[in-house]
Each structure stands twice: as structure tokens, then as C-alpha cells.
Hints:
This is Mitofusin-2. The protein is mostly helical. The chain has helices spanning 9-26, 29-63, 73-93.
Amino acid sequence: MSISVSRPSTFSFQCKNKKRLMAEINVSPLKHFVTAKKKINGIFEQLGTYIKESATFLEDTYKNQQLNPVATEEQVQEVCGYLTKVTGIGEVLARRHMKVVFFGR
């Protein structure tokens, strides 16, 4: 004979929150930094891929004489400049030994 006991879902949700809060309290600042660094590296990889695809698209449409001018040469060069900047930031973030990185103008 078996007995099935159902628990309210809010109880399990509260337990998960408590466990997560306890985990966050016990995690070192270095662990937070490593996690944040991984996330921001992923963001910059995605951003670089997006800019690369955009630059390729704009370059192809700029060179295509059959299309009305979608982009100018200056706009294509500007997007390529963004790619260079994002690649540079990604290289800095990919460094294994890093203390602080500042972003700004």
C-alpha cells in the first residue's frame, strides 16, 4: 500500500529561493567575477557575430548595382569600425589574467 502526498508548489518554490539565497551568500566575490566574465564574453561573441553579419549584408547590398542604395560606403566603414572595437573589447575580456577592465570613451 502506498500513500501519495502532494505538496503545494509554493513550498518547493520557497525552498528553492532559500537555497539560492544561501548559495549566493556563500559564493566568493571571485566566483561572481568569473560568472560575470563568462556571461559578458558570451554577449560580446554574439554581438561580434551580429555585427559581422550586418557588415557583410551592408557590403553586399552596397556593391549590388541592381538595388537602390541601401547603405553608403561611409556606413559600411562605420559598421566595420564597430566590429574592430567589439573585437578589441572581446580580446581584453578573454585575457586570463585580468584585474580590472574599464569601458568608456
